[in-house]
From TrEMBL:
Highest taxon of source: Bacteria
Name of the protein: tRNA (N6-threonylcarbamoyladenosine(37)-N6)-methyltransferase TrmO
Record bears the keyword Glycoprotein: no
Span of domain TsaA-like: 5-146
Species this protein is from: Vibrio rumoiensis
InterPro entries given in the database record: TrmO-like_N (IPR023370), TrmO_C (IPR041369), UPF0066_cons_site (IPR023368), YaeB-like (IPR040372), YaeB-like_sf (IPR036413), YaeB_N_sf (IPR036414)
Gene name in the database record: tsaA
Length: 243
């Protein structure tokens, strides 16, 4: 039987586009976010007691992917983007009902006039993503110490991030420059390029929209070693421009 779901709010995050959004929550801990509640959910009564919990489950819609549909198998980035697994064995954004779930930290509840906000720690959601439900994280039930993570058993590798002189100057002139630099470092260290380019240096210059900035970067190879087997790639932030 068909049914409909109405969003109860939306997320406000530094990620203005899908590219560069961390593939899981808490991978960029400096990137804070907040939920703007809607309608009847926009009430101090609706969040009464939520401050007692350190984390919540967010249920949300992959609204930018809904029209694209879905397939029974997907290519997870963790497997290099080449090997297929069932969609239900992945966290692919292309799903039968386009519903996502993330466990995130609650930083506080704030009230600005008639607007109730939920302040959050690091999230993996694009700015303006519709939120369809919020549930408290219950440690004794939700945390499973001996759980097995399949092909995503360990945390992803990260790359060093360096900033060009011009990029550093732009950040210094920004009122939130130090905070934004931390976010950029944590986001780009995950290497947001397509999975098949993982562990490969790349001449192409990429760009991503974070906060009010257009951040351009390349993935380069440290050729200081005479042994090519131990050369390491790094992220080079070539320039940062304000929108």
């Amino acid at each position: 039987m068909p049914f409909s779901i109405e969003p109860i709010g939306r997320i406000h995050s530094p990620y203005k586009e899908k590219f560069s959004v961390p593939r899981q929550p808490r991978l960029a801990p400096s990137a804070k976010a907040r939920i703007e509640l809607f309608g009847e959910a926009n009430s101090p009564e609706a969040v009464r007691g939520l401050e007692q919990f350190s984390h919540v489950w967010l249920l949300f819609l992959f609204d930018q992917n809904l029209e694209a549909g879905w397939k029974p198998t997907v290519r997870p980035p963790r497997l290099g983007g080449n090997e297929r697994v069932g969609v239900f064995a992945s966290r692919s954004t292309f799903r039968p009902n386009g519903i996502g779930i993330s466990a995130v930290e609650v930083k506080g509840i704030t009230q600005q006039g008639n607007q109730t906000w939920i302040e959050l720690g690091s999230v993996d959601l694009v700015d303006n993503t519709p939120i369809i439900d919020i549930k408290p994280y219950i440690p004794y039930s939700d945390a499973i110490p001996d759980a097995i993570g399949g092909f995503a058993e360990s945390e992803p590798d990260v790359l060093p991030v360096i900033f060009s002189t011009s990029a550093q100057l732009t950040l210094k002139s920004h009122s939130q420059g130090q905070h934004i630099q931390s976010v950029i470092e944590q986001v780009l260290a995950q290497d947001p390029r397509p999975a098949y380019k993982k562990n490969k240096a790349d001449d192409k210059e990429y760009a991503t929209h974070l906060f009010d900035l257009n951040v351009k970067f390349k993935v380069e190879s440290d050729s200081s070693s005479h042994n090519p087997e131990i050369n390491r790639n790094f992220i080079h932030v070539t320039s940062i421009e304000r929108f």
